[in-house]
């Protein structure tokens, strides 16, 4: 298996290089930039901007800039955020914890809810509960997450709540961790969980349902039934195990969403994640931050795909590392 | 013609299909006819009737400037359909062309095109769209362009698979043996067989494109004020959520129904057009 992982890693390197060129090119093609915008401020002189430019080698030819950036990235130095006046890696580190925490929690909750619902709706295809779940699924897919966020905020405010948004009540934000702070967080956490997770839950549920229906009509399921296996065994060992495989292989694709899926929800709900940070940097053309986050997104996709392949080989003995 | 009729009837027999078709018609007609059926000018302000609830004069209430919410929603749907429609057409034309030609010519060209498509797919939709708009500047046309670019690889990938199979099929090879030109083979033999896949994906893409457009406008990156836009209305209504939730709630509902309609329609179309799913 390690050989497989290693070989995949070798294949990933040229792809990442290609992506890095693309990311860099896109940023270069962008008209203007943060430093140009700085000139609009009368307090900033042209000399200052030129000095910053020289300091970060931005006066050099494009390929020198690219190589300089790339060698920095390889060494873990992602450059400098002009917008925040701090190194990019520091800024990302600060937000990474909450981002990963929220994302992992959401992905976990999504699967735990969606998979059983998908199985249930496939088995009781014409039942009332399944029809209802299906219909809610359609709504889940069609509702923009900011609408869900606003409706929840509205509901909490109408019910007499005062502190919505964020992850803590004001008095706990800078407080050290304590039991009370933890409970306070749980009281806030459910809103972002629903907002970020609804869409994914609906889509995984629908896919699981479709896969189950597909598998249940297969010959081997009929064979398993006809040889007298208990329905429970047919269901879990024959049907579900096969139906879940396609989902595992696309689960890897959801890893880059760690960064992007929270952009809008985080802006509306005021969450301390990478999403709003990326949004601000994009709009302000804070080039090193944007490049770092885009590269991170691409790396996450590769890692996600690799993890998915490994998980798939583990879940499905028919698939071997080739 | 009778084929169209029986097809429509099959669609309507499924309650979800009927609902999807109904919603889609309602939304499309509402958007197209907005200038004719909207009770007020969507930009006309009535300062005395600010933030009013639904009433006989203003069916869905008024916003913070006293503008009629119903009229603004109808015009907002129009803008949203315009952007979503344009982006899907763009993605369909460019992506479809790249996918079919990649499948048809194969070789290095195929690998190159699909590799570039994969690079685009490596970035989450909303992230890529925001990035493109940050580059081009926010306005309606650029939003359509951004969403179109984001959806292009999806269409390219979608048609490439079936096109590869079709290229090897006997009737395509027969047509080639008879000396049909490449253009003729693609237009007469490949495209008609890809129509159902394309139709289903276009409908489903419209559903998500409406959501992406709304998200971008919500962030202030799509349609610019004072032009009515559903996402923007929802965002502006945020400040008045507790006093007068009408603007936000109704514009959000319009986004939901538009997206839901196309989504249901696309799903039922897929079930109807895919013979493997018949009788399920």
Order of helices and strands of chain B: HHHHHHHHHHH
User: Percent range for helical residues of chain B?
Assistant: over 70%
In spatial order, strands of the major sheet of chain A run: 1-2
Give the full name of the CATH homologous superfamily of chain B.
MetI-like
Radius of gyration of chain A: 24 Å
CATH C-level category of one domain in chain A? Mainly Alpha
Q: Sheet with the most strands of chain B?
A: none
* Structural class category of chain A: mainly alpha
Q: Which key phrases capture this entry?
A:
A: 322 residues, MetI-like fold, two-stranded antiparallel sheet, B: 280 residues, mainly alpha, transport (chain B), MetI-like_sf (chain B), transmembrane (chain B)
What would you note in describing this structure?
The complex is a heterodimer of chains A (322) and B (280). Chain A is mostly helical. Chain A has a domain at 98-274: MetI-like fold (Orthogonal Bundle). Chain A contains 15 helices and two strands. Chain A has helices at 2-29, 34-38, 46-55, 62-74, 88-123, 128-142, 145-158, 179-216, 219-226, 231-243, 245-251, 257-260, 262-269, 274-284, 287-315; strands at residues 80-81, 86-87. Chain A has a two-stranded antiparallel sheet. In chain A, helix 5 packs across helix 8 (179-216). Chain A is globular. By secondary structure, chain B is an all-alpha fold. Chain B has one domain: Orthogonal Bundle (MetI-like fold). Chain B is 74% helix and 0% strand. Chain B has helices at residues 2-13, 15-32, 34-37, 69-105, 107-121, 125-136, 140-167, 170-177, 182-218, 230-237, 246-273. The A-B interface holds A 15, 18-19, 22, 26, 29-31, 138-139, 141-147, 150-151, 153-154, 157-158, 213, 256-257, 259-261, 263-264, 267-268, 278-279, 282-283, 285, 290, 294, 297-298, 301 and B 16, 115, 119, 122-127, 130-131, 134-135, 207, 211, 214-215, 218-219, 231, 234-235, 238, 241-242, 245, 248-249, 252, 255-257, 259-260, 263-264, 280.
């Amino acid at each position: 298996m390690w050989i497989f992982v290693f070989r995949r890693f070798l294949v990933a390197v040229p792809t990442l290089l290609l992506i890095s060129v693309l990311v860099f090119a896109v940023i270069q093609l962008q008209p203007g930039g943060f430093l140009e915008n700085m000139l609009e401020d009368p307090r900033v002189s042209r000399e200052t901007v030129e000095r910053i430019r020289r300091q970060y080698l931005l006066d050099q030819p494009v390929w020198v800039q690219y190589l300089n950036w790339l060698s920095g990235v390889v060494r873990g130095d992602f450059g400098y955020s002009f917008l925040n006046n701090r190194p990019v890696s520091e800024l990302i580190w600060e937000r990474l914890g909450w981002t990963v925490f929220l994302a992992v929690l959401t992905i976990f909750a999504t699967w735990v809810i969606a998979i059983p619902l998908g199985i249930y709706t496939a088995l009781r295809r014409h039942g009332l509960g399944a029809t209802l779940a299906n219909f809610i699924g359609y709504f889940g897919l069609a509702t923009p997450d900011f609408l869900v966020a606003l409706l929840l905020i509205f509901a909490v405010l109408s019910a007499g709540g005062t502190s919505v948004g964020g992850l803590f009540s004001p008095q706990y934000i800078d407080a050290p961790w304590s039991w009370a702070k933890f409970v306070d967080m749980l009281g806030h956490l459910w809103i972002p969980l629903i907002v970020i997770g609804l869409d994914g839950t609906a889509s995984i549920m629908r896919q699981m349902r479709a896969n189950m229906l597909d598998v249940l009509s297969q010959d081997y399921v009929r064979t398993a039934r006809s040889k007298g296996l208990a329905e429970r065994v047919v269901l879990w060992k024959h049907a579900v195990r096969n139906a879940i495989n396609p989902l595992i292989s696309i689960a890897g694709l959801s890893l880059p969403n760690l960064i992007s899926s929270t952009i809008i929800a985080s802006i509306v709900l005021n969450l301390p994640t990478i999403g709003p940070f990326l949004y601000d940097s994009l709009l302000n053309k804070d080039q090193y931050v944007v490049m770092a986050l885009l590269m991170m997104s691409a790396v996450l996709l590769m890692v996600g795909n690799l993890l998915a392949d490994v998980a798939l080989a583990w879940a499905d003995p028919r698939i071997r590392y080739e | 013609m009778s084929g169209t009729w029986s097809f429509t009837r099959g669609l309507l027999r499924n309650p979800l299909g009927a609902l999807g078709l109904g919603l889609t018609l309602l939304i499309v007609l509402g958007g197209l006819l907005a200038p004719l059926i909207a009770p007020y000018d969507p930009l006309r302000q009535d300062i005395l009737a600010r933030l009013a609830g639904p009433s006989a004069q203003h069916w869905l209430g008024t916003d913070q400037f006293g503008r009629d919410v119903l009229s603004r929603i109808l015009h907002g749907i129009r803008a949203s359909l315009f952007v979503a429609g344009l982006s899907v057409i763009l993605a369909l034309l460019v992506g479809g062309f790249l996918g079919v030609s990649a499948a048809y010519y194969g070789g290095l060209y195929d690998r190159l095109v699909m590799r570039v498509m994969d690079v685009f797919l490596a970035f989450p939709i909303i992230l890529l769209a925001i990035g493109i708009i940050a580059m081009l500047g926010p306005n309606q046309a650029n939003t359509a362009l951004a969403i179109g670019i984001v959806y292009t690889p999806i269409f390219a990938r979608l048609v490439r698979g079936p096109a590869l199979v079709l290229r090897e099929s006997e009737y395509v090879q027969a047509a080639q043996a008879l000396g049909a030109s490449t253009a003729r083979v693609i237009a007469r033999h490949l495209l008609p067989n890809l129509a159902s896949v394309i139709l289903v994906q276009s409908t489903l893409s419209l559903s998500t494109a409406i959501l992406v457009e709304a998200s971008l406008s919500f962030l202030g990156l799509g349609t610019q004020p004072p032009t009515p836009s559903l996402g923007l209305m929802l965002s502006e209504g945020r400040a008045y959520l507790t006093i007068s939730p009408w603007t936000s709630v109704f514009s959000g509902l319009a986004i939901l129904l538009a997206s839901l309609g196309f989504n249901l329609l696309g799903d039922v179309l897929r079930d109807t057009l895919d013979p493997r799913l018949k009788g399920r």
